[in-house]
Amino acid sequence: MKLVTFEADGPPHVGVLDGDVVADVTSADPTITGVLEAIIDGDDIMGRISELVSPATRIALCEVRLMAPIPRPRKNIAAVGRNYLDHAREFSDSGFDASEEQTVPDHPIIFTKAVTSVIGPRDAIDSGNDPTGTTDYEGELGVVIGREGIAISPDDAMDHVFGYTVINDVTARELQKRHVQWYIGKSPDTFCPMGPCVVTADDIPDIGAAWLHTRVNGELRQEAPISALIFDIPTLISTLSSVMTLEPGDIIATGTPVGVGIGLDPPIYLKAGDLVEVEIDGIGAIRNPVV
Ligand code: MG
């Protein structure tokens, strides 16, 4: 099931995406007020939502403005650096990693993005929020946690996954380098496009087989299978939860493959007028203009 959040008169509504149509779940049952709330409530509410898909009012997708499926996460988005081998190499070669000691890390590099950076799947990335003019894209799989846990073993980790989304980990490269810690370079407003939906994990039993594709102005820049992650989803969940409680609605951006703008020679940064698309098989595409 593909859960979406869309603008409505008043507070946003929860919908279920079915092809090119959105079933308006919140209109059918006003007690269903948000995707995050539904994830927190768990199986009962998810069962209720699936029952409402048929009877709910159906709206053409082109008629609604989608927001990020979780427009305001409860915590910063956890994100993983250098988690595809060829990207680790291109990043190392670029000289832009102020914290780098070795190309492929022994342990996952984990940083976060501010919740205020989240925007919807069609919203504009404001490159004016990066005063250094080094705005770059990173197409990534987002993993949404569904069940609370601490010290989750890799074997149990997938039981804690609610579903998946698409994230563009937009980055101000010069800020990433200048401030050593990546938080500021990863967190300008509008620098976390997300969506178009959260797909429940049961819809994609083998997420590793899905491919990620990033295009800038129609030109293919990144293409890799999720199975190429150096630290896979169970390892990331196990690592994070080894010391902190993971909670429903927590989001992990799993890392980006080779082909970012900083890896090109010379680097090519995003500029006003560009269109960045990140698509993952089985989830969908986010298409964000740059202003
Ligand atoms: Mg990234």
- Named at the architecture level, the CATH assignment of the largest domain is Alpha-Beta Complex
Per the CATH scheme, the topology name of the largest domain is Fumarylacetoacetate hydrolase, domain 2
Bound molecules: magnesium ion
Low-confidence stretches: none
Oligomer: single chain
Overall mean pLDDT stands at 95
Q: What does the largest sheet look like? A: 12 strands, mixed
**Rg calculated over all Cα atoms:** 18 Å
Q: N-to-C terminal Cα separation, in Å?
A: 32 Å
| Beta strand count | 18
**DSSP strand (E) fraction?**
25-35%
Structure description:
With 291 residues, the chain is α+β, with helices and mostly antiparallel strands. The chain has two domains: 2-67, no CATH class; 77-289, Fumarylacetoacetate hydrolase, domain 2 (Alpha-Beta Complex), CATH 3.90.850. The protein is 19% helix and 30% strand. The chain has helices at 25-28, 35-41, 43-52, 85-94, 154-157, 173-178, 183-186, 233-241, and strands at 2-6, 13-18, 21-24, 58-60, 66-67, 77-81, 109-113, 118-119, 135-136, 139-145, 161-168, 171-172, 192-200, 211-216, 219-225, 251-253, 275-280, 284-289. The radius of gyration is 18 Å and the shape is globular. The site of magnesium ion has 7 residues, from loops. Magnesium ion binds next to loops.
